[in-house]
Design brief:
By secondary structure, the chain is an alpha+beta fold. The termini are far apart.
């Protein structure tokens, strides 16, 4: 009886099912489950004549697919972050004018510029020891090109407004800085930028200077300085000499050397 029991066929096992679910946070665990399942199933999961290394190729292909999905997900997340950053950082010239420097201009990466109501001054650093003959400074009515021969141009673009070419000039200071003077065609107009497309400044915060008033004559000079004072007050949203004469009187007391006329 014992012998007969041994000869009785054992019931065949039910087909195995692969129930593992891919978890992006644990791809290695999924691979291990796939290996275990393949080892239990043997060669039945492949064709009868499939080489042993084909199982490895399938697993590697699966692993590569997992890496690809993770890479795509990371790129999608990075792209979303870049879009959000672009929305946060708007173009300064169009939306958020920058405050001007102390000379009513702006300090850029390759140069700095300043202005009065009459002219523009540009300072362009160049490699120390640069000779004048190597400097490129092409001044035109509405464009400016500055650089050193054999190197990329430091300024190359359309000017914010027209300049007087015949009165413009440039010099090389200490063999390391190109200094350029550009008289404006339209006097009494503040420039937002030196070159179109560069970040712009808030011209409402520019302060008119008192340069080049010596040759106007005594009375004209005093009157012009008063106009400049009132203009500066208006730009800052403060009362002018007409609105509040005491303001001008205090300013005269603090700055007697400016020779301002007293209000009547």
């Amino acid at each position: 009886m014992g012998v007969d029991d041994e000869r009785e066929p054992k019931p065949s096992a039910l087909p195995l099912a692969f129930n593992s679910v891919f978890d992006p946070s644990n791809p290695i665990g999924f691979i291990e489950s796939a290996f275990n399942f393949a080892s239990r199933m043997g060669a039945d999961i492949f064709d009868d004549d499939t080489p042993d290394d084909k199982m490895e190729n399938k697993i590697l292909s699966l692993l590569e697919d997992i890496k690809k999905r993770k890479r795509e997900k990371k790129e999608e997340s990075s792209s979303s972050s870049e879009d959000a950053e672009k929305k946060r950082l708007r173009t300064p010239e169009a939306d958020d004018p920058l405050p001007p420097n102390k000379n009513n201009g702006l300090d850029m990466e390759n140069y700095s510029w300043s202005q009065t109501l009459g002219d523009i001054t540009v300072k362009v650093p160049v490699p120390f020891g640069t000779k004048t003959k190597l400097v490129i400074c092409d001044i035109k009515n509405k464009s400016l090109r500055v650089g050193v021969k054999g190197q990329p141009l430091l300024i190359d673009g359309e000017l914010f407004a027209a300049v007087k070419v015949s009165e413009s000039c440039w010099t090389l200071e200490d063999h390391e800085t190109v200094s350029i003077l550009l008289p404006k065609c339209k006097q009494w107009e503040w420039w937002k930028s030196l070159v179109k497309g560069d970040p712009g400044i808030d011209t409402g915060r520019c302060l008119p200077g008192v340069r080049r008033l010596d040759g106007l004559g005594y009375e004209a000079e005093r009157h012009m300085r008063k106009l400049l004072f009132d203009y500066g007050q208006k730009c800052k949203g403060l009362p002018t000499s007409e609105d509040c004469p005491e303001v001008l009187q205090k300013f005269i007391a603090d700055h007697p050397y400016l020779n301002l006329p007293r209000s009547k």
